[in-house]
Amino acid sequence: MVSSSKRTPLTFLVHATVLFLVVLWTIPTAGLFISSIRDKDQLSVSGWWTALSTSEQRLVVRAHEPKSQVQQGDRFVISGNLLEGGKGEIARFGFSSLKPENFAAGEVAEMKKGRTLQVNANGDYVLSSPTEWKGSRGQRIFYTAEIPPRFTLDNYREVLNAEGLGQSFINSLTVTIPATIIPILVAAFAAYALAWMRFPGRALLIAGVVGLLVVPLQMSLIPLLKSYNLIGEFFGVGSKTYVGIWLAHTGFGLPLAIYLLRNYISGLPGEIIESARVDGASDFDIFRKIILPLSFPALASFAIFQFLWVWNDLLIAMVFLGNNQEHLVLTGQLRELLGSRGGNWEILTASAFITIIIPLLVFFSLQRYLVRGLLAGSVK
Amino acid sequence: MAQLASALAIMIMGVLGCAAYFYGSNFLLDKLFPTKNRPYEQIARNLRTANMVRPWLFLGPAVLLLTFYLFYPVIDSFRLSFFDRTGDGFVGLSNYVWLFGSDEFFESFRNNMLWLIVVPTAATFFGLIIATMTDRIWWGNIAKSLIFMPMAISFIGASVIWKFIYDFRSGDDAQIGLLNAIVVFFGGEPQNWITIPFWNNFFLMIILVWIQTGFAMVILSAALRGIPDETIEAAVLDGANGVQIFFKIMVPQIWGTIAVVWTTITILVLKVFDIVLAMTNGQWDTQVLANQMFDWMFRGGGDFGRGAVVAIVIMVLVIPIMIWNIKRANAEMEGR
């Protein structure tokens, strides 16, 4: 565009600034993703940016119980491995909580009554005593270990099974798919009528749609909640049903849908429509055979928009579908987890990533249409 | 599996039911008023009738839905704002008196105003800057995609992402939140960001700016490309530098689009609710109107009167934008 500035030193600055901004915008999501596949013990003690480096952890375990002791010569020995087969390297160890790092790996630590403890870097330990070990619990051993990075899908397995996310996933789909298709159908018919059919009151309806574009949907919640309860009572069903939420999403999505689609459809060449009319096609035929195929780009872009909006919605789902486990959608489930498992980052990060993976996939594969739709309605 | 099957069945029934209406009603209209193979006069009469009825068949569901879900609630909220907590007893202006006497309202009103000033400004500003710069570099489209990406993330998902960034560990524990890690790296004291009164509002706003900048960028970038090359070339020949071209040539030409982006984000900000709910639930002086309204709907069984009053305030704030929108649409249609 501005070709003259291409060779100035400013170009370097532009590249650098854009790179900086891109990193700034991407890092939050990247951090979430990396955290979600980290081991949960590592996640809670070190930042995700250290995920690829070995982390130092201070841990405490109990040695084997006294009953596993064996007599070697005149000493009683308990031995085992602190890391229990896992990878890692022990740097320091100790037997008292006051001095957890008193000894380096490989040293022999003198305990009371002639007892000794030796811990090697590979985790092998030997407890040795001149007298028999007594009691039912093992000796506590404190150690500092270098643990190599560990990536796992355990977090995902856990949230999908134990935290009810699998069920919510299906609920979200059940809400989203009809709530995307129904408004498109309804809006496309209405948009065609407003664009190409002549009838009294058309201008007023168009102004009405534009006005309703900005009505905050919070306005609607209280009256609708009352109406839903009435209707539910009348038909003897619960007031919180899938049909109820589909219609709510349809109603709230309609102004934008009609507005975007009308802009697009009224821009289609009038000759085609007129000549089809002359040939005796009814408006329904014209709509079905000419308008629908021609407005595919606009329909697709609105579909993506509505899909993202419904999938990501929390408010409407909370009010019109309720918070019981059986009907909870993904966003609602995530919000519940945020309340109940706020400190368990391994659960939160994995859950959050599951809720955003579908919209991200839709977004990246269909981005072209989404942008086209945004532009159709906003730039004139 | 059973759940999946029943979900699928519900979905198919819902969508088919909607399609059946359009097909069925139009089929019925064509049968009742046939326009083929009849005497000429009858065809003419039937055609007129059908042409009068058909627009309303097309528009019917849309008009019904819009009326029930948007138009009627606006009217009813207004009515409810004069009634008591159950919506049965008329209480006159007492809800309004309560509203203007409550500190909670002024707190959320002040915060909402902050949101309304900061978020649209920042998102439009960043969007414009990024749009201008990405148009000049070869990997601009990739950069745009990545910055646009948060648009696809739910507010609640974004809240988890940012809660992780703002995470705070007390004492000497290693910070796992990025922001505190950076602060500690530069020798600062770690902070519990979302509980610092007043400033925590800005930490919540950053989340919405993060989401909305991509939207502003895409629209403004299209508008920038619409500027004729000649005007910019002329400015370059006249010796204008990059900054001058940007502010004196480009920005004035896309002023209309900037206004559209600004208002769109403003409307969104008025409705913002999820972020505050998930991050603080209005604690530590971060309450906003939409969240307060939601609060009154369900607090202690719900107070519809007070909830409705807060809704009316939100509505009043939107009305200027609504009028501007209708005027703009009308002007557009006259130009057609």
From TrEMBL, chain A:
The keyword Ribosomal protein does not apply. Its main location: membrane. It holds the Pfam family BPD_transp_1. Keywords: Cell membrane, Membrane, Transmembrane, Transmembrane helix, Transport. CDD domains: TM_PBP2. Coiled coil: none annotated. It is a multi-pass membrane protein. GO terms for biological process: transmembrane transport. The chain crosses the membrane at residues 12-34, 175-196, 203-222, 242-261, 290-311, 347-366. GO terms for cellular component: plasma membrane. It is found in: Cell membrane. Belongs to the binding-protein-dependent transport system permease family. This is ABC-type transporter, integral membrane subunit. It comes from Marinomonas posidonica (strain CECT 7376 / NCIMB 14433 / IVIA-Po-181).
TrEMBL record, chain B:
InterPro entries: ABC_transporter_permease, MetI-like, MetI-like_sf. CDD domains: TM_PBP2. GO terms for cellular component: plasma membrane. The keyword Membrane applies. It is found in: Cell membrane. The chain crosses the membrane at residues 6-29, 56-75, 113-134, 146-165, 202-224, 245-270, 304-326. Its main location: membrane. It is a multi-pass membrane protein. GO terms for biological process: transmembrane transport. Belongs to the binding-protein-dependent transport system permease family. PANTHER family: ABC TRANSPORTER PERMEASE PROTEIN, OSMOPROTECTIVE COMPOUNDS UPTAKE PERMEASE PROTEIN GGTC. This is ABC alpha-glucoside transporter inner membrane binding protein. It comes from Marinomonas posidonica (strain CECT 7376 / NCIMB 14433 / IVIA-Po-181).
